[in-house]
Amino acid sequence: TTAVVFVLMSGNLAYTAVSARQIWSFARDEGLPCSAWLCKTGGSHAVPVNATLVTLGCTVLLSLINLVSKTALNAILSLQLSAMLATYAVCLACVSTAKCFRPSTVPQARWSLGRYGGACG
Fold this sequence. Notes:
The protein has 5 helices and no strands. It has helices at about 1-30, 35-40, 50-70, 70-100, 115-120.
């Protein structure tokens, strides 16, 4: 049980950090309401504290749904996962289409897998 709890806690910390960084970067580009507040960082490590608090608040609110209905929570999580996978598919499709039909419009990457890149993507 201890190993499972440790893995779950590590995964939750990583998920919270990634979500906070995504909110911070989207707010930095002024893509969210209250962007000026969300894009502030604090401390010497430039941690996005406000974005982390918003992420934790949303996590707590979604966790409270579990107290009311497990079916509702499962539906919300399934929709979130499907939406996330759909965004990855749209990004890959757009880049692949651009590389095939208009390679001059795709900026040069920092690193490339060469001829194996299309198969890996």
